[in-house]
Amino acid sequence: MNFELTQDQQMLAESIRQFVRKESPVSRLRALRKDERGWEPAMWKRMGEQGWLGIPFPEEVGGIGGTFVDMMLLLEAMGTQLVPEPVIGSVVLGGLPISFAGNAEQQRRWLEPLVAGERSLALAHIERETRYSPQWIATRANRDGAGWKLSGEKIFVLNGHAADTLVVAARTGGAPGESKGISLFVVDGDAAGLHRRAVKGMDGHHYGLIRLENVAVGAEALLGAEGEACPVLERVLDYGAAAAVCEGYGIAQTMLDMTVEYLKTRKQFGVFIGAFQGLQHRAVDMFVETELCRSMAILAAIEVDNAEPHVRAQAVSAAKVQLATGGKQVSQQSIQLHGGIGVTDEHDIGLYFKRMHVLNTICGDERHHTSRYADSPAFLAAR
Amino acid sequence: MDLSYTPEEVAFREEVRAWITGAMPPEIRRKAETGGYFEHAETMQWHRILHEKGWIAPHWPKEYGGTGWDVARQSIFQEELVRANAPTIPPFAIYMIGPLLIQFGSDEQKQRFLPKILSGDEYWCQGYSEPNAGSDLAALQTKAEIDGDHFVINGQKTWTSHGQYADWIFCLVRTDPSAKKQAGISFVLIDIKNTPGVKVVPFLTTGGLPSFCDTYFEDARVPMENLVGELHQGWTVAKALLGYERFAISGINETGRMIRWLKEQAAATRVGDHRLIDEPGFRNRIAALEIRQRAALMAQLRTVAASQHGKAPGPESSILKLRGSELFQQSYELGMELMAYNSISWFNDDDVIPAPQHMVPSNFNYLRATTIYGGSSEIQKNIIAKWILGLPG
Asked: Does A307 contact chain B (CB < 8 Å)?
């Protein structure tokens, strides 16, 4: 048992923090909100050159074969300045299914350009009636010669508006509600029959609203075994949830720091408002929840790599619930303690508040993860 | 970073588990299995069993009788004690005065007291609070005047947990009435059983048991060799205890025990055609509590690991008592909800409600104290606001 970062990890964390502060302060997100892509390919390329987009991928595709604790350091730092580049959408959700289920040729073909920062990916799995559970996927993949034709609709695809290549979850068998029969396909962003729109998110990011009309893919597009992708998808979504908690911790810590600073500089009734006990105790409540978010980000980052699915899922769900309750509380109280200025668009605190909501939603909210935790055989077996 | 256990640690867990099972005397085992209330004598019996094994104070330095275990083994040991429902060793001797004497005591004091703390031959209680010095501890008025080579002590301490069982009490007393608040306080050890002029009077709490005492001092003469640290420097000595207290009284491990109880009882509780645990609404509430406890446990592990590496406790350590005490209360609130009408029962015969539920209503009441003792939640928040967040005032 050990909670120390290695020397390499400490250096990685420091270099990311410095880069983010200098190259992508929160004012950059503010400006990019008006841009329909919402992030910049030039910055993506630079992140690739730093090696950060290859952290979770093997060396064969140019990655560095790191642990998710390394990813935690990247995501946490990105959270502090709300860096808009699509690491969760493209590296975690888009790249990991190819890494987990793809053969060597598929990995080389689609992960190498991702790791280099030349291309971006997305995972298209959410539909109007799935909420957070992939077994309700209804999009069809019908046999067509050696390949398939895909039809259906995907909503709020992270980076789906901009991705060069999409990983699409579709049914090659079974009915909605069944885990069996779901397959993953790699689909070119320019494929005929693929219609996509950029829709606006409250966090200033854009999302893909995607319609597939008989989109033809070849045999080489199938990732892993036909009809067996649900466990892969669940594993990838656990990584997405863990990533959200790591970025969310960075946001909670930043909101706490901004708020404490405000309490020390804002004067009312002739004194710094941080001298008022009622406000101090709210700030301490924020501090407590932030520390718990940090503890659970560490738990999720370590255990998401656990080979035992129950251990992985329970740790990730617990961490996601902590962010959805504690992280949310931090975000709400920080607005409260900023007073009126906290609800203006001009002040940055609202940008963090919005991103916190998005992170609390993607890959499962509080209710979803509490139920999943409670319904797991591991919950009642634990003694 | 790594949360996993090595094969040696897994083997250690097996060893500890097997030993605990074999070492429990039959009556203690019976109560452990049914969630019974351990009498003080039974707790001390268990204390002596742990001592004979050399496991009573794993966190002490090895040269003073600790085990030399690292953080992982200490955690495993605590987890296994909780899993076995073994009697909880009270914090006053092993967690409070022992480490404090190791840090501040003279060689004579260490030789005189530490062996009997370990063996359980002498039991300790804590004399800090007074009727007019609660959260404002430095307002304490019990005074110690120097007369030759003795202190002469007059005053009253209250909330003395386990005072009726104790052989010794460690006290904060005012030795310089002219000095400002914290400056005139000293830390002394008093033989509570054999010193003329010391009287201990237990009183009932809302839990229905005599958990606390009032302790009166009337011209009680205490040798000056029982002073710990420098004269008038007792506040410095006492402050060092806060660190130990955070571990000892957070209740986070005990909350884990109650969560296990909740699962077992919810599975044993029938509601017509189903079990209570089958209701998603109730199951989710246990899960939500377990998740909150797990987050606190992670913060506790990080704190223990930091101290293992010789680092000062990080900011996460200051939240343990604050959050842990709330969770402990919430676990019993959920227990009362689980029991429905049984939650009204108050110390009835064994056939009235299931045996494992018997003590829950009493504890539900008593545990309101956890957010008050050891520095109330509000005092904890004041401390964090000032010393960690650096807020003015």
From this structure: no
